[in-house]
Amino acid sequence: MGKFRCFQFAYALAGGLSVGFSSFVEAATIGDIIERFEGEYSGSVPGAEVGRPDDDLLTMHTFVRRVEHAGFGNDVVYVEQRYGGPEGSITRQRIMAFEQDSESVVTTAYDFFDGAKYARSDAVPGRLVGLSPDKMHNFPEGCRIRWTEENGTFVGSVKRQRCEIVSRNDHGNVFVDMVYRVSGDAYTLFEQGFDASDRFLFGTKTAHNHRRLPKRDLDAELDNILSTFEGAFRNRPHDPTVTPQTNIIGNMYTNVRVVDLPAFDGNAQYMEFRRGGPDGAVIRQRLNVFDDDSDRVANVMESYEFSDGAIYEGAYADPSKLNGLKPEDLQPLVSGCELIWSTASGVLTGVSDRTICHRFNERLQVWRHVSFVFLLDGESMHLWEHSYAPDGKFIFGSSVPVRFPRVK
After folding, report:
1. From residue 100, how far is each of 104, 110, 132, 312 by CA, in Å?
2. Does one domain contain both 225 and 188?
3. Domain range holding 330?
4. Contact present, 381 and 229 (Cβ < 8 Å)
5. Which of 81, 107, 334, 337 is close enough to 357 for a disulfide, judged by CB 3.0 to 4.6 Å?
6. Are residues 137 and 266 in the same domain?
7. What does DSSP assign to residue 246?
8. pLDDT tens-place values along the chain, 408 residues long
9. What gap in Å lies between CA 310 and CA 337, rounded to an integer?
């Protein structure tokens, strides 16, 4: 474990590495590097090289996104890496600040103390608000990455003669060689760490190649989400998989309709839950707003609650009730509870994880850590909601997603 933590600290401060230190003659520009680096990547690494107990190849998924964050400078990139696919375990998060000095483009990398609550900031950059360099692990001056260009490929390097890191475990001081190579269709990485006696401690035996995934058509995905989500859904009267505290989920009727609200850029839907049937008591109302920013790698759904929902009841049948509605008229769910949408095997999935979705329960005057999952397969809406106390104690939820078949 110690070896792996040290590896996490130093390995792949940013993007791609490549074996060897070539002679670089062309200067790279910040804009060109970031434009080339941004994207979504998939690759694999041997488990033994990242401190895992076996030698099997591990899938590695990487998100790279430029973000606006003046606290780190004018040219900032967020990097998140996961093993096991896009929903796998987070193994690395970085904020990278690019600048031009008298020699070349140089990158300062910052590591998170508690990265979980900033997960998927590539899709929801607002989660990074409040961060500053003094609230993060800072790498030494000699570990800054210097970039050059070689035949259209951007190369960043760090040499162990200058990069000395104090290990977070018992390794003492660690000296690191790194080379990053970012091309049009991939990035590769190569990194090794040594102790003061030049003894090898960790690193990659060969360069790891991470291929760039095709850019998603988020407009088409959004149209699919909105059309699949729209309609009426009704679940079974009682579901034995649901804990007693959530028996109210039984016999629930849900209406979802796309609504045209200019103040929300038009990508909005009204959702209304009623208990007992289409004419039952309204127990939940939401306005869901989608952001399909072309620079992001996923659709993001932010939900708003109505402070006085009575006047908007039935807006799925009469959308004119929502005319003139603006964001300031509603209460947004707290940052961290946005749903990030993806598609797998024809099923649309929107997820927000309890590690970052923390809501205050006004009635009980307690914080709840909540996970939301929506699954849309065309025939049904599946809702999976869990709630936990801050100490991790389970409060309520269902053991499997609750199915709401579409009302034909």
Report:
1. 6, 17, 20, 53
2. no
3. 218-405
4. yes
5. 337
6. no
7. G
8. 333 333 343 443 333 333 333 333 345 689 999 999 999 999 987 776 666 666 677 888 999 999 999 999 999 999 999 988 888 889 889 999 999 988 899 999 999 998 888 999 999 998 999 999 999 998 889 999 999 998 889 999 999 999 998 876 666 789 999 899 999 899 888 888 898 888 888 877 777 889 999 988 999 999 999 999 999 999 865 555 554 444 445 678 999 999 999 998 878 999 999 988 899 999 999 999 998 787 788 999 999 999 889 999 999 999 999 999 999 999 998 888 999 999 888 899 999 988 889 888 777 777 889 999 999 999 999 999 889 988 888 888 887 888 899 998
9. 24
Contact assessment for residue 272 and residue 322, using Cβ atoms and an 8 Å cutoff? no
User: Quick one: 250 and 399 in the same domain?
Assistant: yes
**Which residue type does 278 have?**
P
Distance of alpha carbon 223 from alpha carbon 235, whole angstroms: 25
Residue 342 belongs to what H/E stretch? strand 339-344
Provide the number of structural domains found in the chain: 2
Q: Give the start-end residues of each E strand in 198-280.
A: 200-203, 208-212, 231-234, 252-259, 268-275
Which domain CATH number covers 353? 2.40.128.590
| Same domain, yes or no: 230 and 84 | no
Q: How far apart are CA 84 and CA 87, in angstroms?
A: 7
Domain final residue pick, 189, 212, 235: 212
| Model confidence pTM above 0.90 | no
* Distances from the Cα of 302 to the Cα of 22, 86, 168, 334, angstroms: 46, 20, 37, 9
Pair 51, 184 in one domain? yes
